[in-house]
Amino acid sequence: MMTSPSRDINDLFDEIVLTEEKEARLGYEEGLKDGQEQGNEEGYKLGYAQGVSLGEELGKILGQVVAQQQLKHTDKVRRSLEQLRSLIEEFPRTNDPQADIIGAVQDIRSSHRRLRALLGSKKTPGAAPPETNSVDHKDYSF
């Protein structure tokens, strides 16, 4: 009878431990990959939604600036309009990790508030028109 060479019990235990470590490493790598993919997708969706909202806001402000630039204003108001338009036109349009997007948005919003104050427009964009008192306003319709 031929016997196969016997393996040392320590080698068997080492093989079991190494197999467990290998499986744990593979499970970790697979979980990490899946988590990154899910996180990237969620991050993309959030970033896209925030970008669209910010683009709409800046577009509305730019539209107001361009419209106001067609009218006659004092030098101070004209300079403020030019400054605000410049800030919007210089706003980053590419994915530059070095760009200070939050700072740029804060500057644009501050400049817009100052301009509205100069123009005497205290109402916020999208606000409902003030209600008129029915005593002061008579309805002459039939």
TrEMBL record:
Q: Annotated region Disordered: where?
A: 118-142
InterPro entries linked to this entry: Essential_protein_Yae1_N, LTO1_adapter
Domain Essential protein Yae1 N-terminal, first and last residues per copy: 27-65
PANTHER family, A to Z: GEO13458P1 (PTHR28532), ORAL CANCER OVEREXPRESSED 1 (PTHR28532:SF1)
Q: Which family does the record claim for this protein? A: Belongs to the LTO1 family.
Name listed for the protein in its UniProt record: Essential protein Yae1 N-terminal domain-containing protein
> Which species does this protein come from?
Drosophila yakuba (Fruit fly)
Q: What is the lineage of its organism?
A: Eukaryota, Metazoa, Ecdysozoa, Arthropoda, Hexapoda
